[in-house]
Amino acid sequence: MHASPGLAFLDLPHPTNVLYEGMGKKRTPTELVPAVIDDDAYEAVLAGVTALLESARHAAARSVNAVMTATYWEIGRRIVEEEQRGKERADYGEQLVTRLAKDLTSRCGRGFRYRNLYQMRQFYMAYPRILQTASAKSGRAAPSDKLPFAEVTLRDLGKGFPLSWSHYVRLLSVEKSEARAFYEAEALRGGWTVRQLDRQIGTQFYERTLLSRNKAAMLRKGQNARPEDALTPEEEIKDPFVLEFLDLKDEYSESDLEEALIRHLETFLLELGDDFTFIGRQRRLRIDDEWFRIDLLFFHRRLRCLILIDLKLNKLTAGDVGQMHLHLNYAREHWTHADENPPVGLILCAEHRAGVAKYALVGLPNKVLAAEYRTALPTEETLAAELDRTRKILEGRVGQTPRKRRNRP
């Protein structure tokens, strides 16, 4: 007889009848009744296991981030050292980073474009003495000039970077070294997430603290986190920097309804005719150090332009329209080829009571082209009706309203 926590059954040596020890009669398996689970004890076990998994996931995210940050620092160090060997450092460094960006992107993925490599170089320049710090923490001898990396592994080097790569990227945007050191120290002391760090930098917490008469009270107040500052383990793992480092796709939605609607819209548009060509789902773009995603990206063969589609599960706002215009400007500059027309944006709002569709035609060079777009593309009314019909069908299947979608990073 074996016992298991919370639920106890007897081993059955025979599938039909069992003779219990110390009892004179036989019972069939249908007479076996599991032990009653104590609700309080079970809740304690569930809470403990949940907390363990959450902690493990956070630890996994921190581990990946530490190795990533150490790797990027080392890449920056190698770029700087190679630059210093060039006769004309400025021109040589520019050519080196440009060539590396091209070759690394083709071999290792999107995380090694020019801007990324330049940031790694900048990172090393801001933290040049981390190698010695990591050597001391690992208990190893400091590496020699001839073998600067031989005695220190990436794991050891990662110990010199207690914050995530996203933290350091945000810190590098702070021009004053004193302010950068202040934010880094406060982030470490208070365990700030990158969202909290971004908020404090954006509200000039350093400058406000300097001007405050009661600096201790100001610092205590600055450590108070807001609900929107929190990051789940899933969000940490799906950090675009982590996904780029691991060369993983980030095609994901934040609710079953959203995922189902996006997939249906993809199929629906392709079935309208052969003019729509599917390019990708959840296409990521980076503007400065902020990340955005386009739910669906198509190319229209007759119009010869990209079609950017964004889906919202709540009411259409002016902010949604402004963000789409931002995406279109980015797509026109970075994704549009010289022989193509400017891109078109389509915002779809799957509200509970009705569907809403709106085209954004910003940047079109003339009214004739705008009229052609209107003729070639499905009408907003058609798209809104299809979205509304599909949402009602999907919600009817699950029998309940799905959870509200979170704002994207």
Query: Which of globular, elongated, flat, extended, rod-shaped describes the shape?
Result: globular
What proportion strand?
A: 5-15%
- Give the spatial strand order of the biggest sheet: 3-4-5-6-7
Total count of helical runs of at least 4 residues:
16
By helix and strand content, what is the structural category? alpha+beta
Sketch the major β-sheet: 5 strands, mixed
Order of helices and strands: EEHHHHHHHHHHHHHEEEHEEHH
Uncertain segments:
1-22, 143-147, 398-409
What does this structure look like?
The chain is α+β, with helices and mostly antiparallel strands and 409 residues long. The protein folds into 3 domains: 1-37, no CATH class; 53-233, no CATH class; 256-398, Trna Endonuclease, Chain: A, domain 1 (3-Layer(aba) Sandwich), CATH 3.40.1350. 52% of the residues lie in helices and 12% in strands. It has 16 helices and 7 strands. The strands form 2 sheets. A 5-stranded mixed sheet has the order 3-4-5-6-7, with helices on both faces. β3 (276-287) and β4 form a beta hairpin. α1 (39-85) packs across α2 (89-108), α1 (39-85) packs across α3 and α2 crosses α3. The longest helix has 47 residues, at 39-85. The radius of gyration is 28 Å and the shape is globular. The two termini are 53 Å apart.
Summarize the structure.
This protein is of the alpha+beta class and 409 residues long. The protein has 16 helices and 7 strands.
List keywords for this structure.
409 residues; Trna Endonuclease, Chain: A, domain 1; 16 helices; globular; disordered N terminus; 3 domains; alpha+beta; single chain; disordered C terminus; five-stranded mixed β-sheet; two-stranded antiparallel sheet
